[in-house]
Structure formats: C-alpha cells, structure tokens
Amino acid sequence: xxxxxxxxxxxxxxxxxxxxxxxxxxxxxxxxxxxxxxxxxxxxxxxxxxxxxxxxxxxxxxxxxxxxxxxxxxxxxxxxxxxxxxxxxxxxxxxxxxxxxxxxxxxxxxxxxxxxxxxxxxxxxxxxxxxxxxxxxxxxxxxxxxxxxxxxxxxxxxxxxxxxxxxxxxxxxxxxxxxxxxxxxxxxxxxxxxxxxxxxxxxxxxxxxxxxxxxxxxxxxxxxxxxxxxxxxxxxxxxxxxxxxxxxxxxxxxxxxxxxxxxxxxxxxxxxxxxxxxxxxxxxxxxxxxxxxxxxxxxxxxxxxxxxxxxxxx
Amino acid sequence: xxxxxxxxxxxxxxxxxxxxxxxxxxxxxxxxxxxxxxxxxxxxxxxxxxxxxxxxxxxxxxxxxxxxxxxxxxxxxxxxxxxxxxxxxxxxxxxxxxxxxxxxxxxxxxxxxxxxxxxxxxxxxxxxxxxxxxxxxxxxxxxxxxxxxxxxxxxxxxxxxxxxxxxxxxxxxxxxxxxxxxxxxxxxxxxxxxxxxxxxxxxxxxxxxxxxxxxxxxxxxxxxxxxxxxxxxxxxxxxxxxxxxxxxxxxxxxxxxxxxxxxxxxxxxxxxxxxxxxxxxxxxxxxxxxxxxxxxxxxxxxxxxxxxxxxxxxxxxxxxxxxxxxxxxxxxxxxxxxxxxxxxxxxxxxxxxxxxxxxxxxxxxxxxxxxxxxxxxxxxxxxxx
Lengths: 314, 385
Prior knowledge:
The complex is a heterodimer of chains A (about 325) and B (about 375).
Chain A: E1 5-14, E2 17-27, E3 32-36, H1 43-50, E4 58-63, E5 66-67, E6 79-82, H2 94-104, H3 109-122, H4 138-150, E7 156-160, H5 168-183, E8 187-192, H6 195-201, E9 204-209, E10 212-217, H7 219-225, E11 230-237, H8 241-248, E12 254-259, E13 263-268, H9 271-284, E14 288-295, H10 299-307
Parallel strand pairs in A: 3-8, 3-9, 6-7, 7-8
Antiparallel strand pairs in A: 1-2, 1-4, 4-5, 9-10, 11-13, 11-14, 12-13
Helix pairs in contact in A: 2-3, 4-5
Chain B: H1 2-17, H2 20-44, E1 51-55, H3 60-72, E2 76-80, H4 83-91, E3 97-100, H5 105-110, E4 118-121, H6 127-155, H7 160-170, H8 178-185, H9 190-206, H10 209-220, H11 222-227, H12 233-263, H13 270-293, H14 298-316, H15 327-333, H16 337-349, H17 358-378
Parallel strand pairs in B: 1-2, 1-3
Antiparallel strand pairs in B: 3-4
Helix pairs in contact in B: 1-12, 2-9, 2-12, 3-6, 6-7, 6-8, 9-12, 9-13, 9-14, 9-16, 10-12, 10-14, 12-13, 13-14, 13-16, 13-17, 14-16, 16-17
C-alpha cells in the first residue's frame, strides 16, 4: 500500500542554526511513526514543514502523493495537526471550536455536527460540550486539542508532544485514543521526548537529535542496531544451577549466563524467541522454574548509545 | 472566500463575547465625551450664544464685515460708543468680547497698509474670546491675501490705477470676500466636536481589534492550526482587517447616533457622514495594520498603537483644536485622520451636502491607501513562520 506521507531530505536553517538536516522518512496507512528526541532536536521544525506551516530550505514532503508547502491547499485536507500548544479558543465552547475548524476543512454544517458528536464522545467531553473551554481543566483542553485535529477524519494525524503537562489519567486517555485511531487505519506521526510513549505507541521510531535522524526502525531493530540484549532472570531451584547456566551459554543467541542461589541470569538476543528453548533445557536438567522476568532494552538505552546523552538529561 | 467569512464571523463573535469591543469601541468614547462635555461644558456654555460687540468706528466697511461674521456664528451684536464703555460691558459680564477697529483702518487699506484690529475679552470669556480673536485673524488674513494679489499684479506690470479698483470690485464692497472668512471660522459645535474627537480617537484602538487577535492567535497557536487547514494566509489577513472595519463602523455609527440622542450633536448630511465614517474607518484600519505589523505580541502592538493613537489624536485635535495658525503643527495636523474626519464633518455641518465632504473623504482615502500599501508589506510576516 502506498505511503500516506513521504519526507525526503528535509533541511531548514534559522540563521546559523541548522534546525533540520537531511531528515527523511515515510509513514504507511495505519502506522504510527514516532519522532523521539530531546527538546530542540528538530522535531517541531520537522513537523511544521510536514504540516505545511514552514517552507523547507531543501527537500520535499508528499502527502497522499501531493507535494506540500505553506501555500498548498489540497494536501492539507488530508492532514490533521495537533500542535504542542493548546490551539483552541477559550471563549468558544468545545462544540464551537470543533465546528469552526471543521468548517475550515470544508465540511458542511450537518457533517460537522455529526462528526463533532462522535469526536466529543471519543474524547469524553460530551457532557461539557457547550461550556466555554476556558472553564476546562488542562486535561480536558488537551483532549479537545486532539479532537479538533482528528475531526475531519484525516489520513495523517500529526501530534506534536500532545501529552506535555498532562495529568496521568488524561495522558493515558490520549494514548488510548491514538492507539484506537491507528487501529482504524489512520497514519499517525507522533513526536515526543517521552521514551515510554514512543515504545507504547509507535510501530517505528526515528531517533532525532541536532536536526538529524540518527537511526530509524522498529524498537527491536533499533535495539539490535546498537547491540543491546534482553536480560532474562529465571527464578529456579533444584539441580545444578551453575551447570545449567554453563549449558545455556552454549545456545545460539545467548551472550552471557550466570547463576546464584536464587536462579539464573542470561543476556540474550530476542528473549521471546529463545525462552521456550531455555525453559526446555532447564527442565531436562531437573531444574524447577518458579518465575521468569524479561527486561528488554529500552529506547532510552538506544538514545544514549546513539547520541551519548540521556533523553531526560537534555 | 468561505474561510474568510468563517474566520470573520468567528472573530466578531469572540470580540463581542469578550466585551472588549463594547468597552473600547463604545463605552470609553461615550464616557470620555460626557466627561469632557461636563468638565469643559461650563467654560464652553457661552459658545451657544456668544455676545460680541464693536466700538464705534469710522471704518464702517470692516465693522459691517465683522458684524456679518458675528451673525453667521450666531452671536448677538452690540455697538458701543467707546473703548472704556466696552471694557465696562465686559467687566460686568454683558459682553464676552468686543472688537476695536481703528478709525483709519479702511482708509489705510487703499494705501496698502493694514492696521490692527483689537479684541477685548474678559478673563473668563472662555472659548468666546478665542472665537472673537479667530474672526479678527481670519479677516486680517483675507485682507493680506487680497493685498498680496494686488501687489503681485502691480509687480507684474499692472497699472495700480486699474488693478486696485478691479481687486476691490472682485471682492465686493469691502476689500474682503466674506466667503473666505466663513471658511476660516467654519467649525462644529462643541458637543459634536467632542463626540467626533473621542469617536475618532478611540476608533484607532477599535480598528486594531482584528490585528491584535491575529497576534494573539500567532502566539497562542490557533494561527498555526488555521494555517494547517486548507486556508490561504490572505484569507486570514483579510478576515482580520474585515473584523476591524466592521467593528470600527459599528463603533462610529453607534457613537454618532448616541451623540444625537444624548448630547444633541449635529452631524449634517447623512450620506456625507456615512462617507466620512467609511473612509475614516479605512484610514484607522490602515494605521492599525501598520503598527501591528511591527509588533511581536498583542501587548506590544497595543502599546505601539497607544502611542501612535495618542500622538495622532493630539495632533489631529481629538481633544482640543491645535495647529490652526499655520506652521509645522498645521502641516502635521493635516497628516492625521482625525483632522480630516473633523474637517469633513465641519464642512457638512455648515450645510454642505455629500459633495462638501468629498475633499476630506479624499484625504482620508489617501491615508487609508498609503497605510494599506505599507501594511501589505509589514503585516504579511505575521501569517508566516
């Protein structure tokens, strides 16, 4: 299936500052692509170019096969933008906000009303739909901010750090909404500097720093790229644990193995694939397993490896 | 066009909902006009019927011209036997001001000499003293103009024997054309001038409403959101200007009607007033667009507009007449929309139809066109990143 969005070699400078430097990636229908990077990495500039708010110095973006630019009207109908700032009118109600932006996207009155009701239900604001949004809590405003972006049913939804400053409950609601939209076939471009969100939501992640995409792929691909291994901790009793560990270290994909009185600890490539083999080996050696914990390397570690700095430090 | 209308409608709804339009566009100018009228009303109360006089003089032509002008401005007129009699009448409050025309004033004109017309007024004469002085100055100014044209004709080789009588004949019995003097003293009554001045002063702030919202939206993120929709930047800018125009027109129309109902203001020909309102608003919107184009935030734009609006208001005579005696102030005054708006209204108030307002309307349109041209360059950056 053709990609919903393709960005090629995007570049943007602000004076001497290189904000975006050769960024390129694509997003397929139903795919959630995450741009993971610290503040100032170039995420918002990249998104601004893709959303047609900013002219790139070089490169091009195609949405639905049409090239986008600040003056392009057609491809903007295919996109919905959820800016990092709360882009809503405080002196309008939620319904009025939705109605205004829906009409700007070319929807007629009836269509806007119908879609607004669905979106209000989806973001949990039906009961407060006719209250002025200045009376809303921060989380409610965030949800409306997202609702406006997806009102017209875009092929590509762009979310720029939508959970910044959001309480845990609203944050979870937002993440669930994004998962649901992706499940319905909407392509999602999601920027964040929260590693947990990227891991939870994104099918593929681009690690961006200093305006460049340092690496891109699924979480597994990124982890493999930097040589990170899964840690498998097996709580076990009986038999010769040291001997079992030695045997396990001979299996393909097991990098390290050690044992103590509590059990065995292994460093492996793709724990999920190897685990049945490991458990079978232990069983054959008369070792009774009482618990297994798998710790997969996270994107934080990948980011640290690629950039030399931790996400939370920058 | 559709999105232009949607944005315009949304902005108008917001401005009405947040009540800023009512405060700046309607309440403040009306309140200030009331305050001005109340505070200065007593000082100006004699304007409705100035009581003027003249000391008996042998310069009967000039005395007649001054009497005619006094009649034109609705003043009562009295002849007094001597200067001391005049001073007594003023001290006792019977008269506001008295003209003293030397006996040889008229005869001196024929020889190319202009004498001095004196004006005696009481310390508490208020604006009536100024009116009397203005009449005398206007008369003297017209005499000088006639004198210069005669001198020019003679210098160009004309025969004084024929040039002077011709000039006298062309200017009527006296040496002065009465029409020229009327033009010098043409003005609005106090109430109308106060309301008009306040209306134009606050119009510059009302006219900024659309552009302030543009800056607020730019900093608040909703502008980006609008730009991410299939909406052309020109539609957004156009909508912001339209909001300013609509609010400006509503503000002026309401104030004009309120002025009639509450302060007995007299505006003149409705069509002419409507023309001045439209071009006056366009000029104000043009100025607001330029000042907003240089600002980074709505607050900064408001501050810049506050300075520009106050300076233009002062120069343009929104609070009190200024720069009427020629010179650089008069030239600067003519650069303000306030001046031309008042000038147009004055022309209408003197009984002219819509045609009488055309010169002032033309200059207001020039101000609107020039500022719009400048704004087209400076404000575009507000809808781009």
